[in-house]
Amino acid sequence: MTLRFFTALIASWLLAGTAAHAQGFDFDTLTQKARERARQAWQAPANTTPPELARLNYDGMRDIRWRAERALWRDAQLPFEAMFFHLASYHTAPVRIHEVTLSGPQAGVRPLAFRSEDFDYGKNQLDPQAWGDIGFAGFRLHYPLNTTAYKDELAVFQGASYFRALGAGQQYGLSARGLAIDTHGGRGEEFPAFTEFWLVRPEAG
């Protein structure tokens, strides 16, 4: 049977490289969740993008920026930070994003909610307070890979199953796909989509 839809369940490489457990959450749990979803019939994702966002042109979409001072983990002065992408005309399918904390009083898994105040809307004339929690279009991770003076855009996940990761000495990084289906054989390539992510909060050091 052809796989019509791929639910990508991504924990950060920190999770894959450690015996990570947070209130019953671990890589085995994630694998089982992926297995269960793969057995279900494909359903088109809900489009929660408000019409005024869906109508934005390319310049209008680029004028919406995450406020860097609100980056996830910045207040804890950790080397990694996460920032998030806004839904708009080119990215209308939201992804769910969770933070996994492995230890301490906040140990566990929590969903990361969309808040319009975390974004700068530039010159766009919008009313984001009326939208509620519409979700995110993706996220990017930052880390001082090439210089201690600046946190590079280390990895980006936004749209379909594309992602981009930066290597040492690079300025942009290599784009790749999480999964490719029917790339040869004449039946037409299918486009899986990332739908849910778990970001492991880095521990000090």
Describe the structure.
The chain starts with 6 loop residues before the first strand and ends in a 5-residue tail after the last strand. Helices cover 12% and strands 26% of the residues. It has four helices and eleven strands, in the order E-H-H-H-H-E-E-E-E-E-E-E-E-E-E. The chain is an alpha+beta fold and 205 residues long. It has helices at 13-16, 27-38, 51-54, 58-62, and strands spanning 7-11, 65-66, 81-85, 96-101, 108-111, 119-120, 138-143, 152-158, 162-165, 174-177, 193-200. The protein is globular. The strands form three sheets. The protein has a five-stranded antiparallel beta sheet with strand order 3-7-8-9-10, with no helix packed on it. Strands 1-11-4-5 form a four-stranded mixed beta sheet.
Secondary structure elements and their pairing?
Elements: E1 7-11, H1 13-16, H2 27-38, H3 51-54, H4 58-62, E2 65-66, E3 81-85, E4 96-101, E5 108-111, E6 119-120, E7 138-143, E8 152-158, E9 162-165, E10 174-177, E11 193-200
Parallel strand pairs: 1-11, 4-11
Antiparallel strand pairs: 2-6, 3-7, 4-5, 7-8, 8-9, 9-10
Classify the helix fraction into a percent range. Answer: 10-25%
In whole angstroms, how far apart are the ends? 46 Å
Strand content: 25-35%
Q: Could you list the spans in which at least 5 consecutive residues all have pLDDT below 50?
A: 1-19
Q: Describe the oligomeric state of these chains in a short phrase.
A: single chain
| Mean model confidence by pLDDT | 85
Number of beta strands: 11
Tell me the strand order in the biggest sheet.
3-7-8-9-10
Please count the helical segments. 4
Give me the strand/helix succession.
EHHHHEEEEEEEEEE
Query: Which word captures the global form?
Result: globular
